[in-house]
Specification:
The structure holds 2 protein chains of 2 kinds.
Chain A lengths: L8 H27 L3 H20 L3 H18 L7 H23 L4 H5 L1 H15 L17 E8 L6 H15 L2 E5 L15 E6 L4 H9 L4 E7 L19 H14 L10 H31 L4 H28 E3 L1 H4 L2 H12 L3 E6 L4 E3 H22 L3 H6 L6 E10 L2 E8 L6 H10 L5 H5 L3 H6 L10 H7 L5 H10 L3 E7 L3 E9 L4 E9 L2 E6 L3 E8 H7 E3 L4 E5 L2 E7 H4 L10 E8 L4 E6 L1 E9 L1 E2 L16 E6 L5 E5 L1 H4 L3
Parallel strand pairs in A: 6-8, 13-23, 17-19
Antiparallel strand pairs in A: 1-3, 1-4, 2-3, 5-7, 8-9, 9-11, 10-11, 12-13, 12-20, 14-18, 15-16, 16-17, 18-19, 21-22, 22-23
Helix pairs in contact in A: 1-2, 1-4, 2-3, 2-9, 3-4, 3-6, 4-6, 7-8, 10-11, 13-14, 14-20
Chain B lengths: L1 H16 L10 E7 L2 E6 L3 E6 L15 E7 L2 E7 H6 L13 E7 L2 E7 L2 E6 L1 E6 L6 E7 L2 E6 L1 H4 L1
Parallel strand pairs in B: 2-11, 5-7
Antiparallel strand pairs in B: 1-2, 1-8, 3-6, 4-5, 6-7, 9-10, 10-11
The chains are: A alpha+beta, B alpha+beta.
Chain lengths: ~675, ~160
């Protein structure tokens, strides 16, 4: 069997499509479990199983096709009302779904199913599904007659006699014809069975009656091994087929094949698949274009100042305005191409929750909101693991057992809310449970006995400081803490994953009432407006979106709002006391600029406000941020300069170092 | 301007190696001299050579000694280290002798890094049979070319 190569666009298409179809079945089953039986869902699942089977056969994944076939048969009897969709059945379907997933994974990893097929569970599953539906009805035999569709013309295609793999050829014929007109149906539609026998009499294509027959014929003959193409007139239904007019009305099962067929030929026409690399390249290019645009605007401004009356300069100015407009729109659209909805991650959660709930014997109600909120493509992958982890923790350790909840007077069913919403320039995801919460006194005991903190230090810690301990590596891994404090393993990993994508995680808990994790993520990091600042010979940038105010103060004004201690400075800003730092100190630069006025930038980071004293404000510019992550770190070439988020190339080709405000201050 | 420098590099390469057309990359090193010692960098590791005076290096705060900063190489951000300062491990300031200095952009573990050198001798072809080990941790080997031994820099260990 072929190993799926995801670099190959056809393989990739197959893989993505099948994955999506499996996910669809899964979603429908869960829906049935949640809100009860729905015929539409069954129809949908049937179509998906059928498609999976079809494409699996084309890929020659027999095991996958067989399992999908069993599921399809199961759906048929349910659909026909011969089998009631009980909990056992949905469970079985889910197991089937898992089976499909495993097979598909195997196809990607090795392309060899033999190991999986030796797995007894697997065979048992197939048998169980089969016995579930075969008890009720024998597998329905395929339709033996050529259906007759209203408003179609029939085209009979015959192949060379010794042709092998006719199914593939049929597929090619259909694809070719589909280029010209819509293929409404094809008969026999067994091309997934790969049995050449089924096609020995050729195939019948059903296309719109107004379609150009000659063109269709021509396109079919562009393929090899075609013996004959004939238009079949309504009166002349030869070709050895028996026609049953009563089949003119299409039943659902007959509609399905053409839907599937369309699916496999043309993907969703409203969207285009594009590789991450291409999107990134596009964004880089747009970024460079934006830079050139800035330069162009600058030159034009100067020209305009010098030659105010010149007509050509006036035209240049007009065209520059237009280019600026186009460029910013282009940039906006390109950037949005990087954004994908969180539902990609969220949609997987109900199934997971169901699984864990079953394992732990707890009843969980999961509510998800804000799946349409989009975040950057690169972050989607990074956020899935932490979310899963937090959710697992919440069910495993947060939510109490049903008995305990009853005793506490809580509803038996534990509740978990996942929500996403947009704050200013960031996305906020919350995972809240109404479980037992975290007992801070346990954390204290643990931290002290593990000597993570001295008794003196401990006295100064606030509740939040104590909570921070659960994010410390090694801290939460100790089994007894897991049981006592009610929080599991590896929250340090969750935290580091989130910080890696410049996000932040916060925790609020009320002992006995529940816990809420808040994850804040930046919307996108590709292009942003920055305020440029010069310190000595170095240019820094601060993301404009984070800036609240730029204040210019003379010494007197400064003294009236600033409070200095030997170690830190605070200023009073709109009733808030916020920490004041200076770039000179943080970056150990002597700018040597003496000024009567102090320039202070008030900005908000993900979790707090900060005031920054700077030497000189240069101006604002739209920049592309290039990551320098690979250059930063204890052993990396630029050292531990974590305060630098990235570097931007300015209009004149020089570099600006963009500051990550959330790293400027740590306490 | 960077293009011009690259062209110069190519010319330098072709000019010196014209007579040995069949030379393999593995045998070719860029030789330079500092403080009475001859060094070299394997050509296979070199992505590009640019003239120091053609680029503007911006310093990065709190970097360790010898790290000059970063510069813009046609849209890529490249960090630069000063070979001489690293070798002597004392701080350096950008000197005025920029004219003769070159930044050799090398690929180290997938990261491009510029190494500022002066006293470029040119490209030489190495007699691999006479390569000797060295206990200098900053060097991967002593390679023999044109009657002399050169210390070949072990850039991965270095950076």
């Amino acid at each position: 069997m072929v190993k799926l190569n995801l670099e190959d666009s056809y393989h990739f298409m197959y893989w993505e499509e099948t994955k999506a179809q499996i996910a669809n079945i899964e979603a429908e089953v869960l829906m049935i479990e949640e809100i009860g039986f729905d015929l539409e869902s069954i129809h949908h699942m049937f179509r998906m199983a059928h498609s999976i089977k079809g494409s699996a056969v084309t890929m020659e994944y027999k095991a996958l096709a067989l399992l999908a076939h069993e599921l399809e048969s199961l759906f048929t009897v349910i659909r026909d009302g011969k089998l009631v969709c009980t909990h056992e059945i949905t469970q079985m379907i889910l197991e089937g779904v898992d089976g499909l997933k495993r097979l598909l994974d195997q196809a990607v990893h090795t392309g060899d199913f033999s190991e999986l097929l030796d797995d007894l569970d697997f065979k048992a599953l197939e048998n169980r599904i089969r016995s579930a539906y075969s008890k009720i009805a024998p597998v329905s035999p395929s339709i033996e007659v050529v259906p007759n569709y209203e408003g179609t013309q029939k085209i009979h295609v015959k192949f060379q006699e010794d042709l092998e793999m006719i199914a593939v050829k049929v597929f090619l014929v259909c694809s070719a014809v589909a280029e010209i007109t819509k293929v409404i149906a094809v008969y026999p539609n067994e091309f997934e069975t790969l049995e050449d026998e089924a096609f020995k009499d050729g195939i019948m294509l059903y296309v719109d009656e107004i379609a150009d027959y000659e063109a269709i014929k021509a396109v079919i003959f562009t393929l090899t091994d075609i013996l004959a193409v004939n238009k079949v007139e309504p009166a002349d239904l030869s070709g050895g087929y028996e026609v049953d007019e009563s089949l003119g009305q299409l039943s659902v099962s007959q509609v399905t094949p053409r839907r599937d067929f369309k699916l496999s030929v043309a993907m969703d026409i409203n969207s285009v698949r594009i590789s991450n690399q291409k999107v990134n390249r596009l964004i880089n290019l747009v970024g460079e274009l934006t830079l050139d645009k800035e330069t162009l605007l600058d030159i034009t401004r100067q020209l305009k100042a010098a030659y105010r009356r010149d007509r050509n300069v006036q035209r240049l100015d007009d065209i520059c305005d237009s280019i600026a407009l186009l460029a910013s729109e282009l940039q906006e659209i390109t950037l949005s191409a990087r954004l994908i909805p969180l539902s990609i991650v969220f949609d997987k959660l109900p199934r997971m929750v169901r699984g864990i709930a079953q394992d732990t014997g707890k009843k969980i109600k999961l509510e998800i909101m804000g799946g349409d909120q989009s975040i950057d493509r690169s972050m989607i992958e990074e956020i899935a693991d932490p979310l899963t982890h937090l959710l697992r923790n919440a069910i495993d350790h947060g939510i109490e057992s049903a008995e305990k909840r009853r005793a506490l007077g809580k509803p038996e069913e534990g509740k978990i809310n996942i929500s996403a919403r947009q704050g200013d320039s960031q996305v906020v995801i919350e995972i809240a449970d109404d479980g037992g919460g975290i007992d801070i006194s346990r954390i204290k005991v643990k931290a002290l006995t593990q000597n993570l903190i001295s008794v003196e230090e401990a006295e100064h810690l606030t509740e939040n400081d104590w909570l921070e301990f659960i994010f410390k590596p090694g801290f939460s891994t100790a089994a007894e803490v897991t049981e006592l404090s009610g929080r599991g393993v590896g929250l340090d990993v969750v935290k580091s994953n989130i910080t890696m994508i410049n996000g932040a995680i916060d925790i609020q808990t009320i002992f006995g009432k529940g816990t809420c994790f808040t994850i804040k993520l930046p919307l996108t990091m590709a292009i942003m407006n920055v305020l440029l600042i010069s310190e000595g010979n170095t240019i820094f940038g601060i993301p404009s979106s984070q800036i609240l105010e730029i204040i210019r103060l003379n010494q007197l004004e400064y003294q009236s709002i600033c409070y200095e201690t030997p170690y830190s400075r605070m200023i009073k800003w709109e009733e808030d006391m916020i920490p004041l730092v200076s770039l000179e100190d943080i970056f150990e630069i002597k700018s040597g600029i003496q000024s009567k006025h102090r320039k202070i930038i008030v900005a908000s980071t993900v979790d707090r406000k900060i005031a920054i004293e700077v030497s000189q404000v240069v101006g604002e510019q739209e920049v592309v941020i290039k990551s320098i992550k690979h250059l930063v770190g204890a052993n990396a070439i630029l050292g531990e300069i974590y305060e630098i988020l990235g570097v931007s190339i300015l209009g004149n080709g020089s570099l600006a170092q963009i500051i990550d405000l959330s790293k400027l201050i740590r306490f | 301007m960077e293009k011009e420098a690259y062209w110069e590099f190519l010319q330098m390469q072709s000019g010196e190696l014209r007579d040995e057309a069949d030379i393999e990359d593995a045998n070719c090193v860029l030789a330079f001299q500092f403080d009475q010692t001859q060094f070299c960098i394997a050509c296979a590791e070199i992505a590009e050579v640019v003239r120091f005076k053609d680029v503007t290096i911006q310093s990065v705060p709190r970097t360790k000694t010898g790290v000059l900063g970063i510069f813009n190489l046609r849209g890529d951000v490249i960090p630069v280290i000063d070979f001489e300062a690293m070798w002597k491990t004392h701080a350096t300031t950008l000197s005025d002798q920029r004219r003769h200095k070159r930044i050799v952009v090398v690929n180290v573990n997938g990261i491009q890094v510029g190494v500022l050198i002066s006293g470029v001798l040119g490209l030489v072809s190495v007699d691999l049979s006479k390569t000797q080990p060295t206990d200098d941790i900053a060097c991967s080997a002593l390679v023999y070319a044109e009657g002399k031994y050169f210390k070949q820099l072990d850039l991965a260990a270095w950076l």
